[in-house]
Design brief:
The chain has helices spanning about 15-30, 45-50, 55-60, 65-130. The chain is mainly alpha-helical.
Length: about 140
């Protein structure tokens, strides 16, 4: 097999650079970079630092890899956005549930206040009757 047919080992400088960039992308995605600090998000800047090339090299000479980096970075952003949206939906559902519970508690409170006002009025009426001198109490029957 001749060198031109062997595609597993890049022989050109551009091929070696592309391989270094691809390896840097994989290391960053897996959270095991060698040069940059772990946990750093996938971006053209972080890949350039990890691969030891400039950002311009990635943009100008390897636009396909630059697009791959952008797409991977966007996936992370989309995932974070979707997680936040799901959390927001859960909070909205909980808020709706609590609003319903609050309305029910207010209605119950209103009903109880009305009942209490009726009982207070009846209690005052009964006290007035008992305190009247013309009223005589019946003797209670003891069993």
């Amino acid at each position: 097999m001749s060198k031109s047919q062997d595609t597993s080992q890049p022989t050109t400088r551009s091929g070696l650079t592309a391989k270094a960039i691809r390896q840097a992308i994989v290391r960053i995605e897996k959270g095991r970079p060698k040069i940059i600090e772990p946990g750093r998000k996938l971006s053209i800047q972080s890949v350039a630092e990890e691969a030891g090339v400039s950002r311009a090299t990635i943009h100008n000479n390897h636009p396909g890899l630059a697009e791959r980096i952008r797409e991977a970075g966007n996936k992370v952003v989309r995932t974070q956005r979707d997680e936040k949206n799901n959390e927001l939906k859960e909070l909205r559902a909980k808020y709706t549930e609590l609003r319903i519970e609050y309305r029910q508690a207010r209605e119950l409170n209103r009903d109880m206040a009305s009942e209490m006002a009726s009982l207070i009025a009846e209690n005052q009426r009964l006290r007035a009757i008992v305190e009247n001198e013309k009223v005589v109490g019946f003797p209670s029957k003891k069993p």
